[in-house]
Amino acid sequence: MASPSLMDHLFQRTLDDVIKGLRHQQTLESAFIAKVVEDVRREIKSTELPTKSIALQKLTYLNSIHFVDMTWAAFHAIECISSPNFAHKKIGYLAISQSFHESTPVILLITNQLRKDLKSSNEFEVSLALECLSTIGTVDLCRDLTPEVFTLMSSSKVFVGKKAVGVVLRVFGKYPDAVRVCFKRLVESLESSDPQIVSAVVGVFCELASKDPKSYLPLAPEFYKILVDSRNNWVVIKVLKIFSRLAPLEPRLAKRIVEPICDHLRRSGAKSLMLECIMTVLNSLTEYESAVKLAASKIHEFLVDDDLNLKYLGLHALSIAATKQLWVVLENKEVVIKSLSDIDPNVKIASLRLVMAMVSESNVAEICRVLINYALKSDPMFCNEILGSILSTCCRNVYEMIVDFEWYVSLLGEMARVPHCQRGGEIENQLIDIGMRVKDVRPELVRVGRDLLIDPALLGNPYLHRMLCAAAWICGEYVEFSKNPIELIESLIQPRSVLLPSPIRAVYLQSVFKVLVYCLHSYLIQSQNVTCDLSLKVPDVSSIGVETSVSASLKATVDCEQDNLRNSNQSYEDLSILDDGEGDSSVSALLGEKSLTHESVINLLNLIESALGPLSGSFDVEIKERARNVLGFVDLTKQELGDLHIRKPNVNRKELTASAIVELVHEAFSKELGPISVSSQERVPVPVGLILNENLAELDEICGDVQLPSTSSSSLVSPYLGETAGFSTLQSKQDPELSNEAASLLAEHRKRHGLYYLSSEKKEVQTCDYPPANDLNSSTNANDDTQDLVKLTDQSFVLKRKPNHAKPRPVVVKLDEGDVVPLSGKKVESEDDFLSGAVREILLGSEAIPATSTIKPSDKLPSRKKGKEKVNVNLHESKENSAEGEKPDDENPSLKRRNHRSHGKERSRKSSGKKNADEKQGNEDKEKKKSRHHHSRHKAQPRADMPLNVDAQTGIIPDFLL
Questions:
Q1: Which Pfam families match (predicted)?
Q2: What would the pLDDT profile of 754-809 be if each residue is shown by its tens digit?
Q3: Cα 381 to chain center, whole Å?
Q4: Whole-model pTM?
């Protein structure tokens, strides 16, 4: 394609034209953008830099606003930055900063151009190069351009110097060895007379200290001087952030800075500086009571301010104080409670967190009642925030705050009936977890689960389906604590359960199976007791097997009850198990006056058979399998009960196996399920001889000979049909008449089992004629007065069961220490990165120094007053330090002897040829250093191979802390 001509350049659309064109587009915006990109691709190939730069400018705009790919224009951006025109260079640097990354292929081509612009006499070109380096600087770029950045740090132009100091942070992060070159000058810049340079340097040290504050303890005197003397609030705020990280490492430093921080807190009128002083006191100076009280008074000023931003900051400061100084929160309790009705959602959430921070074992019930009462009148978002806060607080450290678990389980049940509740998953986890851990609360769990299952309004809320799944599982697992098991079956097989998802309906069916087995087992126990009473009427069955014996007991029971129930027309509800009035939930409750009879058992089996019969042909495999299992069990049981009812004289022993099966299944379901530790999988030993490959490359060799089916066959055969589908394909090849029949069968299978095929365009929508469940879109009035909200603390949320604190706390099953989750889930890294190691080597010397030792400020680094002299340690100071417990290197002959021996061994290994090569290389290095020293503007330049000769001291900056 030919390059654009002069006429094309004259009629080239500018960026303003593109923006105006986009604003006029209503529906064809994408087509217009595609046309502009096409024009850009043509214009950017022009040899004229004005045309190229305008095209690149338009492409940069489209990339930033409409995310148009511009990686293909990387080389054209490099061409623009090489232009002598500043406007073209500015556009090129913007495009590079926006689109370049470490994997850009042409990124190394800009190294020389960056070096050239960094040495330019135009400070604006230098600024562009520094900004670009701070954005896209890679390891190679930072390594190659470190000398230029080091030179610019001492530039006479403040505009350039402060940007060079800022670029140092990127250079240190990518190339830690640059610390050996630039760190000394960075420290010297702390004493600069220009406030902009000092501000930039303090910002860099604030970011560096946030990663590893221990390495920057020797710089505490310089930071303290800035804290006391500086009048720039921004700089003081950054210094306070640094001290908040350094003070926990050195208690004497905290003692030294507490008074200047309190002075700033008393005299400063700037809210930003006042807030940072408060944060520093609450995070690092909590041992000083006077400072904490002063900070608490300032927090109260934030809370009562009309500005919502300041109120939120005050609540945030209270949340920090709640971890160590809870009394600060209690003093402002009324203000926190009033903030729950604020119009700002952030303020409401912050106050909610503070309310939950005041929860204890004695007031958890009252606070939960107040919050749930308030959630009934709140908007959906804040309502779920309240419920989530209650759930997360009450389950902390394996429910350590809960004393009355019956109250808490009833509270979980009431949460489901709160409008807009969307915490069904969390409630599900806690219901199951409490059932496994706390045995004494299982009767209450079954009662709450039964109330949830019989509530038809909950079935239509998709957010509560998981909670209904937990209720069904609990009622099936702990059915022995139920007062009316037949009522549980009625609620589990009710018609509205069709609204539930398939996995939850499968849990319902499994619970029906468990309850049915429990009822039949109870009926067998009752029959055995009746047999004992009628032992004189029952013939001797000692010679027959167990199954025949149990069947005989069932037969005797039927004989005893047949005359009483033959003419009765009682309903199914009259034959169910009723409450005995005393709350007895054991099996003995089934053996009272109103117990299971033969007719009630038959009616129960008929009810289950009629309800689960349609599910045996369900398209869902899980539901179909579970329904057929229950129906098969029902058929087997009804056959034996029917045989006994009609008194067959000669009954085969194989036909009377239902009672034995009931015994076995009930025994299997009686196995208790307990909680599982989160670390149980880690304790499982790896089997001997198990080899785990990192990838599945061996499958290529195994499956290399496998041939994929042809397109024609795979279009008709589903891969889910397995071997049967493959056999049908072969059969269709052999017999053409059967191919049409096979195709029709496959089409029918696709129609019936559409779940396992590709989704069709039209999906069947299942209608529901039931009334809607909890309307999540209904609006509630939450604009109450502040006084009404304060009075809310005296009200109580009426629950079905109030907490009983007089009752002793039940036993909560706990596993190993992995059960208790610490409040701060972060692990402290003990290893230093390369940057911290390089900083310590510069500040503390190249010798191995303990983590708690550092140097004196007078011995640490040469200041501007000292000039460029080397640091020397006085013998008197060394003796004082050695008296404190540590010997200097001069008084440690063993260390000197070890170093001398190691150097002697290294010299003995060198050959004569290598010595000559080293000497030759050393001479060349000396000549280069001399020439560089001669042409350099500076008298001295830091060298990476010559660290400061500083001895390690035991005390941390002792002169400064005295």
A1: Adaptin_N (PF01602)
A2: 544 444 444 444 444 444 444 444 444 444 544 554 454 444 344 445 556 566 77
A3: 20
A4: 0.65
